[in-house]
Amino acid sequence: MAVRAVVIGATAVALSAALAGPAMAAEPAGKDHTATREALRAAVQDGVPGVTATVKDGGATWSATAGVGNLRTGKPRSADDRYRIGSITKAFVSTVLLQLEAEGRLSLDDTVEKWLPGVVQGNGNDGARITVRQLLNHTSGIYNYTEDDDFGRTYFLKDGFFQHRYDTKTPADLVAIAMSHKPDFAPGTSWHYSNTNYVLAGMVVQKVTGHSYATEIRDRIINPLHLRATSLPGTKVTVPSPSSHAYSKLAEETTGPTYDVTKLNPSIASSAGEMISSSADLDRFYGALLGGKLLPAKQLKEMQTTVPAGDSPTTRYGLGISDIKLPCGVHLWGHDGGIHGSSSVVVATADGRHSLAFNFNGDWSGDAGAVVVGEFCGE
Fold first, then answer.
1. For this UniProt entry, which residues form the secretion signal (predicted)?
2. Beta-bridge partner residues of 333
3. Calpha distance 274→88 (Å, rounded)
């Protein structure tokens, strides 16, 4: 059963595939946003209900929207919209763990077994052979719980979703799904994107600090950076205002009825993808992260030490963040994220001074890569 990958775990490889194409001439950064605006409009023409984007380029900020945030009323999207960011959550979790390493409270080369004894075991899984670093760069081999057939039927397809959209799942519940499967490969021998890795990473944060990953992210990142639109909802099913509705086909096909999936219990994503933010906040976070304001140089270098992301020729994966090469030769750091009815991207130049964050409030169409190429390569 092939559930559309964009739900919860849209790996950065999905974005890289959209970026593969003929080489283009690069424009000077920040020259204009015409190509970006055209790509946003094209996404709406392709079927995305609405899009919102914000660019930060040095001291200048530019925002644009297209389409609608409410299919019933026709209300447009807002540049201030808050939305579910899915797997972009992973960079926040990774940042916290790297901060803890800088404080001497753990090592990325610690085994998972050291911090979570007995949690990763059975069916060939062995936490004593997996390091925290391998969780963060997806080389652990641990099965991705969102690829489990029963989980997919329960939470991604129409009948299951409407029956179970308000279910609460604990991190232990999600890890147990993964442990019912054999590993994809021996630790450190290959790469496969697995949301289970970051559920475990969130559990490690709690074990090391005595506080939930949500508390640590708030205290270490959200509050210091004044990210007022960013939150960790836990089990809360609504998105704070201002926000738009989120829409999905809830099926393997991209045709058929469109469903409003705005309300759901994000505990099914946990520390792999539960967060809510805005485009401006994501720009600010990436600017601070890449600008060295959140991590010492040693830890930022570790975050940006990459491994091949599967067979992608344009993407390498670091620790919760990807190195993405555009057709025009520009290198960006970023990630995408998907959860029901919400597809998001944030990317930035190496110094964090030029960043782009945007969201589609639909999960079945739209060319995210074209938006990124439009902003950083121009036409």
1. 1-25
2. 323, 348
3. 9
**Alpha carbon 212 to chain centroid, angstroms:** 19
Choose, from 87, 140, 194, 270, the residue flagged as catalytic: 87
Identify the burial level of 257 via C-beta atoms within 10 angstroms of its C-beta, where 0-12 means exposed, 13-18 middle and 19 or more buried: exposed
Residue (of 128, 26, 95, 34) closest to 275 by Cα position: 95
Are residues 59 and 379 in contact, defined by beta-carbon separation less than 8 angstroms? Answer: no
Instruction: Give the side-chain half-sphere CA count within 13 A for 281.
Output: 26
CA–CA dist 194, 273 (Å, integer)? 12
Question: In a 10 Å sphere around its CB, with 0-12 CB exposed, 13-18 middle and 19+ buried, how is residue 277 labelled?
Answer: buried
Nearest partner of 363 among 76, 157, 60, judged by Cα: 157
Whether the model clears a pTM of 0.85, i.e. scores above it, the answer is yes
* CB neighbourhood size of 347 (10 A): 29
Based on the residue annotation, tell me whether 241 is a catalytic residue of this protein: no
Q: What's the pLDDT tens digit per position in 34-77?
A: 999 999 999 999 999 999 999 999 999 999 999 999 999 999 99
Tens-digit pLDDT profile for residues 117-150: 999 999 999 999 999 999 999 999 999 999 999 9
Q: Rounded to whole angstroms, how far apart are CA atoms 151 and 26?
A: 43
CATH code for 12-376? 3.40.710.10
User: What is the rounded distance in angstroms from the CA atom of residue 84 to the CA atom of residue 230?
Assistant: 10
Q: Which residues, at least 6 apart from 371, have a Cβ–Cβ distance to it below 8 Å?
A: 36, 39, 40, 43, 51, 53, 345, 356, 358
